[in-house]
Every structure is written in C-alpha cells, then in structure tokens.
C-alpha cells in the first residue's frame, strides 16, 4: 500500500512539472521545434525530448561541475562507444542532468512518506543510468569489433595479395562491411586523406577502440612496415594471431560461464527442489505433525 502511494505521488509530481511547463509556454515553441525536426530529418520525440527539454535548463551547471578534463574524457568515451543513437556530448549532459533532477524529485517524495532508503536507491540508479548505458554500449561495440576483426583481416589479406595497395585494399573491403570496425577503418582513411601519416592514424585507431585484437593488429602492421616485411604475408600472419587470441578469449569466457551457471542453478533450482522435498515430507507425516500441533 505504501509503495502504491509512493508511485502515485511520484507520478503526480512529474505531471505537475509538465503542467507548470505547459502553463509557462505559449505553444509556439513546440510548433517551431516540430518545424526544425522536420527540416533536420525527423528526430524522435517522446521521453527523450522531455529529458532534453528538462536537462537544457541545467546544461551550464552540469558542464561546470564536470570541468574541462572530465569533459574531454567523456567525449573520448562517447566516441569510443560509436556515438550510439547519435549521442553527442551536449545531449549526454542534458539527459544526465534530467535524470538527476528526476531522481532528486523521487528522493524527496519517498523521504516525505518515510521510504528514504528506497528513494535513495532510485536516485542512485537514475543518476548513474546514462553512464551505465554508455559503458554498456561501448563494451558491446568493442565486442563487435573483436568478432569482425579476423574476417576483415582475411579479406584484406586476399585483396592485398590480388595486387591492390594497402589503402586501396582497405577502401575496397570497407565497401562490403557495415560494422563498427569498418567505420573505424573509414575514419583512418579520412585522416590519412587529410595528411595524417599511416602510423598516426592507426595508433589513433588503437587508442579509440581499446581492443586487444586491434592493438595486436596495429602493432604487427607497424612492425612489418618498419622491417620491410611483405604486406600480404604480414596480414596473413596477423590474421592467424588474431584468430588465436579470439579463440583464447572465447575459451576464457566459456570458463567464466561455469560459475555463473552454478550460481543460477543454486539460486533457482535448489530452493525449488528443497521446497518440493519439504512439502512431500510434511504431507507424508501429516498425522504425526497433527498430533504435535
């Protein structure tokens, strides 16, 4: 009952905030925003637009709290995650501020009704939600890069063996790949087209992805370039090493899955089995237990 009252109070608070905002506007702002989104190609509206509108009021304060150094690190994290859903630094800060404000409102409401710990847990979850989502997107993208790298290198090696130069071969392979690894390779090509050296471009690729497979590929590629090893044979060796490392990571993940499966079995099957055994014992001895009670 207390939880139901708390949820109703939180809902009324959010509705009150929306109502105050509607009373303070003329409605022309929404028309202008709809025109801008139509011209920009149709940005999604809904809860995300509500978060952006709320967080924009606290954008300056949020940027001052983060500071220049943390903002640079945050920009690198967003870039490493591949800018999921078109995420930018400003958009991230707006939504982060909106989630914090909503969390504070929920915390105040639950504190008033005597559920401070529950409200604090909800506040911490909302405050950390954007960071957790961004880290999850980055880890998922890094896993996709690791999975795509062996096949990408195999095709690249065949293309170089066919007679194309390294840069032309990378362009050719990227035409038939649409994953995050191809996007990073296109970024390298764009950097080289504006004057960045191959070493600098691929070192930047290694720093952006933070992938062990990509790091091994870049290191071996640069060493082969320095030592004068033929590129086709170097790519073949690199692809073999990357496949071995990928297989080793898969074996490690499989080994880590054993304890997790045991934990799930312990937390789900064992209590149910004990409950069935206990129920059977009680039912079989109802006469004896009836005499005792």
UniProtKB/TrEMBL annotation:
Key words, A-Z: Cell membrane, Membrane, Transmembrane, Transmembrane helix
Signal peptide limits: none
Domain (Type II secretion system protein GspF): residue spans on this chain: 152-277
All copies of domain DUF5936, residue ranges: 2-134
Transmembrane segments: 97-130, 261-284
Name used for this protein in its record: Tight adherence protein C
Superkingdom of origin organism: Bacteria
Coiled-coil regions, chain positions: none
Xref: InterPro entries: DUF5936, T2SS_GspF_dom, T2SS_GspF_sf
Subcellular localization: Cell membrane
PANTHER family named in the record: INTEGRAL MEMBRANE PROTEIN-RELATED, PILUS ASSEMBLE PROTEIN
Its membrane topology: Multi-pass membrane protein
